[in-house]
Specification:
By secondary structure, the chain is mostly helical. The protein contains 12 helices and 2 strands; from the N terminus they run ααββαααααααααα.
């Protein structure tokens, strides 16, 4: 039985690697031919996306995706880690369990529901108080919705990591005269940093890859935003909007866009894994 289960685990691991290689290879094969039409520099830093004129520049969408991810991750880290600390260290056990279950429910809500909520609630509020070119459809709306969507991941991973810190750390800190806040911020968070960073990595991937919710609240204008209330178009939204009718060079450009996104996400994961290993050695 032990040998059988070991073989099954190896098979599952092999299938996972094969799926990743297949997806990456498919995108690579479909996207590479595009660069015979437009070179990489023009594609990355071109500021105009006009398929009818075979002009393809994804710089505005890269900027929009970067700002949306950065803004949502910043909000998610601040609120998410603070919430996890409250759940694990401050709330009574019963109330903490209720909060954890509620957060798990938030993680299971489909992204289209988040997008619909943003369109019906967040966008009108932003339009009323800020206006803007998109009438509430804006980069700010994207950041707010993505923040809601990544919070469960950050909170859950941080909570699990904080609970995994041995109780001896707490006893030792208190024995040396540390207060509760000193223990949390100088001992517990440092001891749980690898798990917290893993949660942040997952949240970054979720924010970068989100499509439907973003499409509903972004305004989908392929221009570089001059302010946070301007309408934008992210990389994923661009692919989802145009792939259904794209053909020829236009389709190749969308696959090339997906290839760039694939490389960005892999690069972020590699960098964060190296950072985690470096922190663990310390």
């Amino acid at each position: 039985m032990e040998k059988t289960m070991k073989n099954i685990f190896w098979l599952c691991a092999g299938l996972t690697v094969m799926c990743i290689l297949f997806i990456g290879g498919f995108i690579l094969i479909k996207g590479i031919p595009f660069f015979s039409h437009t070179n990489l520099i023009e594609f990355l830093f071109g500021q105009h996306w006009m398929p009818s004129g075979e002009i393809f520049g994804i710089y505005p969408m890269l900027v929009a995706s970067f700002y949306a991810t950065l803004g949502s991750i910043t909000v998610g880290i601040i609120i998410g880690i603070s919430t996890a600390i409250v759940i694990t260290q401050i709330l009574p056990t019963r109330l903490a369990d209720m909060c954890s279950k509620t957060i798990d429910l938030l993680a299971g809500i489909p992204s289209i529901i988040y997008g619909f909520f943003g369109l019906m609630v967040i966008v009108p509020i932003l339009e009323k108080h800020f206006g803007g070119k998109g009438g509430g459809l804006s980069l700010l709306a994207v950041i707010i919705i993505l923040s809601f969507m990544i919070l469960p991941t950050i909170i859950r991973m941080t909570e699990v990591s904080l609970r995994a810190v041995p109780n001896e750390f707490k006893e030792g800190a208190y024995a040396l005269g540390a207060t509760r806040l000193q223990y949390i911020f100088k001992v517990q968070l440092k001891a749980a940093k690898s798990g917290i960073l893993a949660g942040i990595i997952l949240a970054i991937g979720r924010a970068l890859g989100e499509t439907m919710a973003v499409m509903l609240v972004a305004g989908n204008t392929p221009l570089i935003p001059s302010s946070i209330i301007d309408p934008v178009r992210t990389i994923t939204a661009n692919i989802a909007m145009e792939m259904a009718y794209a053909a020829g060079v236009h389709q190749q450009a969308l696959f090339a866009t997906g290839l760039i996104l694939f490389v960005i996400i892999i690069s972020i994961n590699i960098c964060m894994q190296l950072l985690i290993k470096k922190l663990e050695r310390r």
